[in-house]
């Protein structure tokens, strides 16, 4: 009996040493891993040689790795600051950090699912896949993949399953936050930003036509109201801006670059130039 108590006491005294040793090893790993994750995230964000769908997958994966590594680095660091590895891991001091770190657990199955879907689309539509470089793939599969990831994470670890209200709140936070990240990535990339604003312009044009059709059929107020509706609903710059004038260099102010004539008055402009040239010729002969 005394031998068992002595063995238990030895193991109990040895546990803090093991916890601090594992914490030191993990801290050393993340000390070098976090700068590499930041460099990887920057390189992926700046590249334009891969398909936007694949780029989105790599950006999300890089962000999850960086976020999880940062949270673990903070927890491991405070193991030594507080000199209490159990309290640092239990969440008594860093509940928010631990919950943010769970984002990596929730999203661990995100990349495999979304990568499989992306590769299936690339295989089925192999001839036209590279031509379609919009952001609908990101927006459509984002909620679906997050749903699968959160479900698998909670079902595989039933001891951390929160109440249903907390689960729904966490899910919607992830969906909204990831959509915001996706839009941020779109706006940071020049080609994706162009596609994003083109989509908004097309949506505004379609909405404007539907608005005009609605007023024309239901209120019978004629073309004038339809035109006013088009002005109100068209994208910025499509109605209020003057029409583009295709003129040559001879019809432009060389200082300001503005067109000197309207597209419908080019004949009058050349007639005016001819008259001025003739008057100058007459004066020179005198």
From TrEMBL:
Transmembrane stretches, start-end: 17-44, 56-82, 88-106, 135-154, 174-192
Membrane-topology annotation of the record: Multi-pass membrane protein
UniProt keywords, alphabetically: Membrane, Transmembrane, Transmembrane helix
Transmembrane among keywords: yes
CC terms in the record's Gene Ontology section: membrane
Pfam families in alphabetical order: 7TM_GPCR_Srab
Localization in the cell: Membrane
InterPro entries in UniProt: 7TM_GPCR_serpentine_rcpt_Srab
Protein name: Uncharacterized protein
